[in-house]
Amino acid sequence: MPPQARAAFKDSTSVGLGLVPLGLAFGVLVTHSGLAWWWASLFTTLIYAGSFEFLLIGLVTAVAPLATVALTAFLVNIRHVFYALSFPLHRVEGRLAKTYSTFALTDEAYALSTGEQARTWPSRRILWLQLFMHLYWAGSATAGALLGSLIPDGVTGLDFALTALFTVLAIDAIRDRRGDLATPALALISALVARLAFPEQLLPAAFALFTAGLLARHFVTGRRAARA
User: Fold this and answer.
1) Could you report the per-residue pLDDT of 55-74, keeping only the tens digit for each?
2) What is the pLDDT of residues 117-174, one digit of tens each?
């Protein structure tokens, strides 16, 4: 294994191992929803969008219109637009490499590659990191789907696995940025308003409100800074 690959594998281990039980839960949920096991491999390999993949199971089983699927994907993944502002894509060399790096930009890969210790990482280390994260997710989901028939249908809570993971990540983020109480407060308000106003579409509505709030805050603070 090349040196950069070994280093990236070590970097990915802690978060990657956390993705394994989540991927297993996703694979089991796929088969328990009545879909063939290979849907788990297809979703995780070609879509690779974490939270949206959990939502996509319900959309596929409900035969939702393509417009609904597209709108949901946009609202759930629009946060990646903000990731691109600080993700070190400029250090990734080659058009094909940049294309894959953009496709494989996930929450976990972003968190690892934009930290203090990652500021000197070369192109190959970033790419290997993203590839290992992709393999963790796709491999564990496929394994979960193949083993799904061995798990009783009465097991509940698998669809909450992603919510639990993001809850932990959110708590860690709040601890790291204790001075920024406005962002978690805005997220909470968005979730409450979505719960009251759009209970059937809570997650997409909450994401849309939160994104609109962030854009409004950025616009207002930018104007204040310009005036100052």
Assistant:
1) 888 888 888 888 888 888 88
2) 788 899 999 999 999 999 999 999 999 999 876 766 666 666 566 667 667 667 766 6
19 and 108 Cβ atoms separated by less than 8 Å: yes
Tell me the three-class secondary structure of the chain, residue by residue.
Answer: CCHHHHHHHHHHHHHHHHHHHHHHHHHHHHHHCCCCCHHHHHHHHHHCCCHHHHHHHHHHHCCCCHHHHHHHHHHHHCHHHHHCCCCCHHHCCCHHHHHHHHHCCCHHHHHHHCCHHHCCCCHHHHHHHHHHHHHHHHHHHHHHHHHHHHCCCCCCCHHHHHHHHHHHHHHHHHHHCCCCCHHHHHHHHHHHHHHHHCHHHHHHHHHHHHHHHHHHHHHHHHHHHHHC
Q: What is the pTM of this model?
A: 0.71
